[in-house]
Amino acid sequence: MKSKLLCIIAFLLVSIVPCIGHNKIYDNQIDIEFFIPVEKSKLYTRVIGNTEKPIIISLHGGPGAFSVDHEFYKDVFEKDYLVVYFDQRGGGKSEECTDKTMLTTDQFVEDLDMVVDYIQDKYPNKKINLLGTSWGGTYGFLYLLKHQDKINSFISSSGFIDSPQRNFALINHERKLANELLKITTDSVKKVRYEQILTKLDEIEKSGFKDFFEYMNVIRYEFPKDLGFDVYWAKPELKEKKAELLSDPDFYVRVKYTPEQLEKAIERMEYINEVFMNMESYNNLNIVNEIEAIKKPILVIQGEYDYAIGVEQGRTIYNALKNVSKKNKELVYIKNASHNTPFEAPEIYYNTMKSFFKKHN
Length: 361
Description:
One of its GO terms (biological process) is proteolysis. Keywords: Hydrolase. By secondary structure, this protein is α/β, with parallel strands linked by helices. The chain has two domains: 2-162 and 236-360, 3-Layer(aba) Sandwich (Rossmann fold), CATH 3.40.50.1820; 166-227, no CATH class. It has 14 helices and eight strands.
């Protein structure tokens, strides 16, 4: 299970080692760590960048993951912005949380509001921007629905606002592949397998996505192996780059984690992810109509083959942002990329985000 969950941490990795309070300052550049108090918990936070510049708060994926996004944003944003990385409730180096009543989207939004206020007080008179990846993209939209007045602009990278759409889209994609393979294969064993997949897909589709954790693992990790595609990668051969990164000792130094701490963080992630994936309100989350209320500048970016959120999710989000003017909203589909855009198309991915933030800051 841990290896499966590792697949969804592609660019949501960014955390730390036990050196709280350690500061580094080079011409307005800082690298500090502290905890932000929230209801019944404390959230580990690392702030890196230029204290004279606008703020970017990074929202990692999950739910339940942890922030190692410094590894990906250090050369992209940290010279021109003050970047805030924090581990969401229960994840990474934040205080452990096993109370399921505190592991909800509403609670996470309240937590983020306390993070925003804390950072605004600590670094006053600065614009605050949000950058969310995967679940972090969804998280950002949920926050904007309640507190958009506190935010200058937002980038949703591989986020979703219609969870049933992403689930149905993947089921339909796998059903199409299974039917196509069933027509052309002459292998009796494979025929049986494709028929089994089709039967199971029907069962999952009719489940209502109530207890979805096990089903999620089946359709995202098990079935794709038989059907010849990868939910998270358009270029599976690039998985080696990620593996190399996770085996590089310097990586752990940069993100201030030991391999043992990373292992513990993954265990926590598994628990929190299962809580959310077995929550009907999360699996059926749909805020398509609600985000019409958002008026802030928005960039929506995703890979054209991102089956983790559904290939139409980006267009759904863009079209739903009816009160964001065309000059203030952008939709970018990255060709030949899936959910792991920092690995599959880093140049266009980072340049697109840099241009957007520059325009609105």
